[in-house]
């Protein structure tokens, strides 16, 4: 009789374990380390330093996977905020593409590399929540396209 109960108990432990339940549900946290990244700046012309609205701004990783895409506001600003990865040495690429043609003059595309280090994070618990890393990229200058 004891053998039957022992086998039933083991069966349920295995089954529940496969379904994601654990005997010790609060023993540890598992999954990815949480980290929030904030990147912002203003797109301006390299010639006259005027802001450039309606520029497509894409955020991607070094593997080329696009994470987010936005358009600069009327004041030329852009802002990315999200949990784009883990809090290690993380590198992102921000690409600026003039999409409105001659409306706001024409500008060459530009790509900027942004690297975060563990020391950039604030407000985390130092374990699973690394906190927030904030980078103000300032003014991003785009070169006018050369007219023929």
Short description:
The protein is mainly beta and 148 residues long. The chain contains 1 helix and 8 strands, in the order αββββββββ. Helix content is 11%, strand content 43%.
Question: Can you put this structure into words, describing what you see?
Answer:
With 148 residues, the protein is mostly beta strands. The protein has one helix at residues 2-18; strands spanning 34-45, 55-61, 66-71, 77-82, 90-98, 110-116, 121-123, 129-142. A four-stranded mixed β-sheet has the order 4-1-8-7, with no helix packed on it. A four-stranded antiparallel β-sheet has the order 3-2-5-6, with no helix packed on it.
Q: Tell the overall outline.
A: elongated
Structural class: mainly beta
Tell me the number of helical segments per DSSP (H or I, 4 or more residues long).
1
Q: How many β-strands, per DSSP?
A: 8
Strand fraction: 35-45%
Mean pLDDT: 81
Mind telling me the C-alpha Rg? 24 Å
Element-by-element helix/strand order: HEEEEEEEE
Low-confidence stretches: 1-8, 23-28
Instruction: Describe the strand arrangement of the main beta sheet, using strand numbers.
Output: 4-1-8-7
Largest sheet: 4 strands, mixed
Task: Report, as a whole number of angstroms, the end-to-end distance.
Answer: 92 Å
Feature tags:
disordered N terminus, four-stranded mixed sheet, 1 helix, 43% strand, mainly beta, 148 residues, elongated, four-stranded antiparallel sheet
